[in-house]
Amino acid sequence: MSDNTMVHKRTGTKEKILKVSKALFSEYGYKGTSVRKIASNVGIRESAIYNHYMNKEEIFLEVAKDMFSSPFSFNDGEIRESAMKGKAFLHKFAMQYKLLTFDKYNESMFRILLIELLQNKDIREQFMNEFHNKNIKVLSEGFFIMMQNTLIRSSDPMIMSYEFLSTLFYIRLQITLMRYDSISTTSLSTQFEKHVDFFWESIKS
Amino acid sequence: MSDNTMVHKRTGTKEKILKVSKALFSEYGYKGTSVRKIASNVGIRESAIYNHYMNKEEIFLEVAKDMFSSPFSFNDGEIRESAMKGKAFLHKFAMQYKLLTFDKYNESMFRILLIELLQNKDIREQFMNEFHNKNIKVLSEGFFIMMQNTLIRSSDPMIMSYEFLSTLFYIRLQITLMRYDSISTTSLSTQFEKHVDFFWESIKS
DNA sequence: ATTATATATGAACACTTGTTAATTTAAACT
DNA sequence: AGTTTAAATTAACAAGTGTTCATATATAAT
Known about the structure:
- The structure is a homodimer of 205-residue chains.
- Chain A is an all-alpha fold and 205 residues long.
- The first copy, chain A, has two domains: 13-60, Arc Repressor Mutant, subunit A (Orthogonal Bundle); 69-203, Tetracycline Repressor, domain 2.
- Helix content of chain A is 72%, strand content 0%.
- Chain A has ten helices and no strands.
- Chain A has helices at 13-32, 35-42, 46-49, 56-68, 76-83, 87-101, 104-117, 121-148, 157-180, 191-203.
- The longest helix of chain A has 28 residues, at 121-148.
- The first copy, chain A, is elongated.
- Chain A binds chain B through residues 29, 31, 111, 114-115, 117-119, 121, 124, 128, 132, 153, 155-156, 159-160, 162-163, 165-167, 169-171, 174, 177, 180-181, 191, 194-195, 198-199, 201-203, and chain B through 29, 31, 111, 114-115, 117-119, 121, 124, 128, 132, 153, 155-156, 159-160, 162-163, 165-167, 169-171, 174, 177, 180-181, 191, 194-195, 198-199, 201-203.
- The structure holds a DNA duplex (30 and 30 nucleotides).
């Protein structure tokens, strides 16, 4: 009963470390957050951290996992149903993306994760699998269904998804950067909607 | 004859520092490149660096400036002429972008600059002005001319440019990441062309 | 030759970093 | 109660950081 999976359940320190780390990493980034600072915010010494995690990176990777694994809320059946509505499907997808973009925690974490994305292979893999591929898959399914029902022109669903997703990403990046500098994003706030409008005009049959 | 602009011309050390820094920053990044390492590669002590640059950041900013200021080679007259050809204009633009993406130095530097983009306000401004705005401007002019000549459907040229540029950026990001991990990019190598094809189908009248 | 200036040096400052080792405290199981 | 094990502590390591300061050298202009 006390094997590898179910030990360490006496103090709840591990959970506290994760919670504190989330807050600190999202605010100060990976390099800006020291093990000492995590420890002191938890209320223990830095050496005690190593009773729960192998090293700093392991903590960060677990924080990142939580971030990427918050997926877009589309159940399997829901995709088909939603895709039949055509433009509304794209709109819903974009609005979910917009929500993430303007959410306080996701906003900071997006910036931090991008930094690490460019330096940490594990983060890159998480990004590719959990973000890129997963989204391309959902979108492709949607577009495929739309094509079947001749709501949109016939084309490669993967390419179409790529085109749709890439612009969402770029908008998010730009908004994130501007908000980080406290620059007003009112001029960009409707960019998501404009993207959907433009894109729909581009593909509708 | 010896005012602020034309002093410091005895040893050429400043130029050497810049050259060495370019190589080091592009390989090891900002934080991975210490002032001591730059100095030793130049062949001087770290303290001598400060006779030429105020601090480490000033060196990096100058390296970055060089990077961003390598603009797309479109002269004013050339845009009009090229835009009249419609799709070929987009193709040329995308191919220039592709060239940059697969150029050894630009490839490393793109990654490094993205990292700093997310942390350094000056880099962000350089990116917005020299990269984003400049490209949106060139593209907008092109699209505007195409619309005048009814080569493409009528729409907001700025939005259209945004849509076109954002995908190029995303492709570049993805290729950069994959090549950094030595993952084969053959599946993505024609993505630029596919983008142009898809986009042209989306806007042609 | 003397002065002025640019450029270099060596040494130090003041501080932070992730991680480990030996040891003690505290809780749970027998 | 005693034993086992988890979890915490104190202390140190070994290294690297950007930057500054007083000083020395070399070059160009006077």
